[in-house]
Amino acid sequence: MISINNVTLSFGKQVLFEDVNLKFTNGNCYGLIGANGAGKTTFLKLLTGEIDTTKGEIVIGKGERLAYLEQDHYKYDDNRVIDVVLKGNTRLYDIMMEKDKLYNKVDFNDSDGIRLGNLEAEFSEMDGWSAESDASELLSNLGIPIDTHYNLMKDMPNNLKVKVLLAKALFQNPDILLLDEPTNNLDLEAINWLEEFLINYSNTVIVVSHDRYFLNKVCTHIVDIDYGKMKLFVGNYDFWYESSQLLIKQIKEQNKKKEDKIKELKDFIARFSANASKSKQATSRKKILEKIELEELVPSSRRYPFIDFKIENSHGKDILSVKDLVYEEDGKRILDKISFDLQKGDKIAFVGTNNIAKTALFNIIMREVKYNRGEVLFGKTIKPSYFPVDNTNYFNKNLSILDFLAQYGYANDPQALRSFLGRMLFSNDEVFKKINVLSGGEKARVMLSKMMLESPNFLILDEPTNHLDMESITSLNKGLINFEGEILLASHDHELISTVCNRIIEILPNGKIIDMRCDYDTYLEKRKD
Ligand SMILES: Nc1ncnc2c1ncn2[C@@H]1O[C@H](COP(=O)(O)OP(=O)(O)OP(=O)(O)O)[C@@H](O)[C@H]1O
Ligand SMILES: [Mg+2]
């Protein structure tokens, strides 16, 4: 059980939540929801003890263990799969690392020997010798092929990557499992798998997600973070949505009735207060009027950014031509002699389970990765802009949002940049926030802002809806429908693909492609046959 007692958390002037009192009881699955930047990840970090409350305390049941699947699925990219799981047991992993270091030490001395003895003792007490095989068994149980257990994380397809991160969390045998947006990067099949897993999992789960279908399937409770408050609802996402809408409707109706009454009273008072025979009635109505109070409708932090990609320079008829492209990684063929040409107005969805190939292709087109053979040619007038699936390299700097974006537009007009940022939901002091502390969704919003400032006539987007809340996804969807240039898009969002794209390229597991000029639903129909 977790008790949240009078907890307040603020970063400088920004108060994320105030005086929160909540209890998470055993065996339930809690969906933690709220707009991008509301404080969901921060709340999970409070639970794990990674950060401290500003006020109040968090009490976790005695002896109860917590495990955490973080929002950043790329964090362990340079580690081997097996090591990621072992890292789940922090102490054991630290011992293994220190032991390795000592065994490899050249000037090994007596005190090193004593230290090593102690480490070995602790290691065997923790059943360290079977840890690796336990980790491997856990991975296999989650459906990760045994021949990939010693691969680097960055070589794992996204579906499996999330399973490895889940294995890392489960390796600690937790009583409480915390999951931060686990369905990002997952396709439908993998999401179904995770849903089944969570439905059958008997310990407590707290899961952050923007995916309402997923939340409906797995949650017994919803915790909503909005405007500094955290509210607990019993039931799934739809139930939360309906009850919160109902509450707003009731307040509006009551307020409307009160406003009508106020008007009626005011009219009466205005008409009759000078009238001697009715002045007594007018005075009593004044008293009634004073007592009527309108219920406050708390504003929501859920807002729509304004996403609009304006083309400055339209382009000629040569757009992009890919010819016999071959790309290999560690001797494995990822893209096998693929060719396609773009025509004006093409908005292509890249689909298929092979996300490594999709990302590689986008990186090759953007000249970020070298290919083995073939040709990739942009038309001379094409000005592309890229939304990479992993944006770590952009955000590990100590720059403010304002300074970061000034590199891409309005460099000499901070006022104009600030009003642009206001439309992207960064207002007032928020523009001075450092980009390395932004939430997942805020980073995505900054990337989209960067792309808008670049005034591209060609967009490449790799899983742009990951991390975004529903309002931002809706705005992005509109922006992409309205965009007049060409688009290459990889996404798991059915609605986004089917409303934006007019051509589908499927990358097959063998690295070849199927290219179809039709919308997504037609493609799905045809694929069934
Ligand atoms: N170390 C920090 N210093 C200052 N501000 C921070 C820090 N960490 C987070 N923030 C801010 O706190 C807010 C909440 O961040 P958090 O990551 O918890 O949001 P979130 O609800 O998980 O959003 P998302 O849905 O986008 O993942 C954001 O506005 C973020 O910029
Ligand atoms: Mg988050």
Per-chain topology:
Layout: E1 2-11, E2 14-24, E3 29-33, H1 40-48, E4 55-60, E5 66-69, H2 81-87, H3 90-103, H4 110-125, H5 131-141, H6 158-170, E6 176-180, H7 188-200, E7 204-208, H8 212-218, E8 221-226, E9 229-234, H9 237-272, H10 279-291, E10 320-329, E11 332-341, E12 347-351, H11 355-365, E13 373-378, E14 384-387, H12 392-395, H13 401-406, H14 414-423, H15 440-453, E15 458-462, H16 470-482, E16 486-490, H17 494-500, E17 503-507, E18 513-516, H18 520-528
Parallel strand pairs: 3-7, 3-8, 5-6, 6-7, 12-16, 12-17, 14-15, 15-16
Antiparallel strand pairs: 1-2, 1-4, 8-9, 10-11, 10-13, 17-18
The chain binds adenosine-5'-triphosphate (ATP) and magnesium ion.
What does this entry look like structurally?
The protein is an alpha/beta fold and 529 residues long. It is 40% helix and 21% strand. It contains 18 helices and 18 strands. The protein has a 6-stranded mixed β-sheet, sandwiched between helices. A 6-stranded mixed β-sheet has the order 14-15-16-12-17-18, sandwiched between helices. A hairpin with a 2-residue loop joins strand 10 and strand 11 (332-341). Helix 2 (81-87) packs parallel to helix 6 and helix 3 (90-103) runs antiparallel to helix 4. Adenosine-5'-triphosphate binds next to helix 1 and helix 15. Magnesium ion binds next to helix 1.
What is the helix tally?
18
- Per DSSP E runs of 2 or more residues, the count of β-strands stands at 18
The residue-averaged pLDDT reads 93
Helix-residue proportion: 40-55%
What Rg is obtained from the alpha carbons, in whole angstroms? 28 Å
Low-confidence blocks of residues: none
Distance between the termini: 51 Å
